[in-house]
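Chapter review: from sequence to fold.
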Amino acid sequence: MRRYVDEEREQEYIDDVGFVLAAVVWFVFGAVVWEKLHDGVAVSQVVFGVLVLTAVRAIAVALATVRSPLSGPERVLLAGLGPRGTANVALALWAYIVLPPGPGDTLLSVAIVVVLGSVVLHGVAAPILVSRVDSRVAAGAWRQSN
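The token string follows.
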């Protein structure tokens, strides 16, 4: 593989290619979402998607951060606002293509609910959760300094 002499330019090029590829993934996902939402999404898939966004994610983060130095509020922030983006979309699209129509459709519908729900959750909950964690961290720092 050829390497550039200027590593900074090489890194910028890699970042640009990554951005374009992510944009293509989101464009394809948007087209598939448009089609799937016209077909409708089952209530059970929405319920499962909401469970993934809340309880399942919280349990996974709690288990993954057992030995970490993160505080409780920081873990809540990570569970609520952790990334569920391009990798999920790419894997869901790949599974939709590879799996038979029934399971592939179900998986894609749940992925759509999770990703769109995540966008809504981040937009609504992020300011609230960040301000709460920020105020608790600031209060803890103030107590330690006094």
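Two observations follow directly from the output. The chain has a mean pLDDT of 82. The two ends are 57 Å apart (CA to CA).
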